[in-house]
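Q: Sequence in, structure out?
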Amino acid sequence: MAQKLAATARTGRDNQRYSEQGERLVAGVVPLSIDKTKVLVIQSSRRSAWVLPKGGWETDEGTAQEAACREAWEEAGIVCTVQRDLGKIPEMRPASQLSASASKALYQFYEVSVEREAPQWPEQHKRGRQWMTYLQAKQVLAARPELMEALNRSSILR
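A: Exactly. Output:
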């Protein structure tokens, strides 16, 4: 199935899916280079940190995989193909880091291959992207243990 590439990013949480325990369901990707020596990371929306592309799984999306690929397009400007399901990862941030805008989440990550990096994408005005080695990514993702767990579950070369 061809990925739909919207010109604008979705906003808000009106169509957000939640688990039976009230966790926000978040789908994300670990985008690896063809030779698996690098991962593509993006700047957080406030540009204060580096993160993996991820976001809410919405009610009109049939699968978390579909949501993950949409988020990869909106946030990183990549067209990708899922290679592996990396499984569910529970929220690992301490309660002090959670808020209404950063609520408790249950993450579902996928390892993806990058088919294309677009020169323009929906969130390019608020996010940069950069290829990093495992060691570089490990340093910049250190404050986000759930993202490090996803990276560690991937087949990136260490």
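The first strand starts at residue 24 and ends at 32.
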